[in-house]
Specification:
4-stranded mixed sheet; single chain; 17 helices; 69% helix; two-stranded antiparallel ribbon; alpha+beta; elongated
Length: 392
């Protein structure tokens, strides 16, 4: 008799009780989603978004896919089409799943301890109740292990999603405005808005990274150095390859070439294919006159990105300085075809013609470089030298 009772318990648990708790949980997500959106909401019972081998039911805007095998109903998924919901609405939808499960657990606890049901029934409900509390705990505690969906994307458990939404809710609106400006190429406006977010206390690494990048884009090296110093004090142990590359660029601009090369070394060690770090380290080698090392870096940068005009242009300068003028000129011509708005390419053409003693042509290229970017490195000194040669 006892064996039969346990068999009945297992059958009820597997066939009815566990699937029922999963259904309750997903409805906890689905009903709020229906109330807060005006598009279709889909619930999957028994899969993470796979409609195959499932019974399909449609009730208004609610679409249900119930897997034919109840043994699969230990998992479920709620998907809603509308993707323009506020953080508050998303929070409500995400929280209601675990809360509904908790509500079921509390009701079961009341039935088990305060009702006058048959003891065998109570015995079954007690163990079911234990599992519902466990499921609630597993859902509400954030886990970093991703859940792979049927379409190949991943999500996280309810607790993790709720935590991320709470973090997002704390993000100042200026950050989102700044990111929008950044993505549209308005780096000056982006830096102003993201700086406001930083001053309001939002100090995630991405804020420093975007702010440094925005300042570098508008060649505001003073502010990029200020933010880089703050970022270094906060999270240098968490620097990635691009962080070290940007740090090296800033240090190079202010003449700290040895420190710049150390940062580039770290960037390239972390990501040997970082063509920007390779190009920038090569450029720094150009500045200090180590043209052989510079060419090696430019060759690697071009190998990883053959359409990257800067290292081709910079390699041309290094070749000219080493006396391989015609090879250098070929690099400059190739770079000019790829990026005709690069002031350094015009500057390097000017250097070529200066080395060839064609000072008038050199001046034409230097002036064009100044039109594009008056801050081009050593441009003023070369213009001064060529004007002396021309006795202007």
């Amino acid at each position: 008799m006892l064996v039969i009772s346990y068999f009945i318990f297992l059958l009820l648990f597997v066939m009815i009780l566990r699937p029922f708790s999963t259904l309750v949980h997903e409805l906890g997500h689905g009903i709020p989603a229906l109330l807060l959106t005006n598009k279709k909401v889909t619930l999957y019972l028994g899969s993470y978004g796979n409609p195959k081998d499932s019974f399909k039911f449609v009730i208004g805007r609610l679409e249900l896919f119930l897997h034919k095998k109840l043994f699969h109903w230990k998992i479920g998924l709620c998907v809603f089409e509308q993707n323009t919901l506020s953080i508050n609405k998303l929070l409500f939808i995400n929280v209601m799943g675990p809360l509904t499960s908790l509500g079921l657990s509390i009701i079961l606890s009341y039935i088990v301890f305060f009702s006058e049901l048959n003891e065998n029934v109570k015995f079954i409900l007690f163990f079911f109740n234990v599992t519902t509390y466990y499921e609630f705990y597993r859902d509400i505690v954030p886990h970093n292990d991703p859940i792979e969906l049927h379409n190949g994307t991943t999500i996280f458990n309810d607790g993790k999603q709720i935590l991320e939404l709470l973090k997002a809710k704390m993000i100042p609106n200026e950050y989102y405005i700044g990111v929008e400006y950044y993505n549209t190429g308005n780096y000056e406006a982006a830096s102003l808005e993201i700086e406001k977010a930083l001053n309001k206390g939002y100090q995630e690494n991405i804020v420093y990274q975007l702010l440094i990048s925005a300042y570098l884009q508008v060649k505001d090296y003073t502010n990029s150095e200020r933010i880089n110093n703050l970022y270094s004090k906060k999270a240098q142990k968490e620097f990635n390859s691009n962080d070290y590359s940007n740090s090296g660029l800033i240090k190079s601009f202010f003449g700290n070439y040895e420190e710049a090369i150390e940062d580039y070394d770290k960037a390239i060690e972390m990501d040997p294919s970082n063509s920007y770090a390779l190009n920038n380290r090569g450029y720094t080698y150009n500045i200090i006159g180590n043209y052989e090392s510079a060419i090696k870096d430019f060759d690697k940068a071009i190998l990883f990105d053959e359409n990257f005009a800067y290292p081709i242009n910079n390699r041309g300068f290094a070749k000219i300085k080493l006396g391989f003028k015609e090879d250098g000129l070929k690099d400059l011509e190739k770079s000019m075809k790829m990026d005709g708005e690069n002031s350094y390419c015009y500057f390097n053409f000017g250097v070529y013609y200066y080395e060839e003693s064609d000072y008038q042509k050199a001046l034409e290229y230097f002036n064009k470089a100044r039109e594009l970017d008056s801050t081009t490195y050593k441009l003023d000194s070369y213009i001064e030298k060529v004007m002396k040669k021309l006795e202007i």
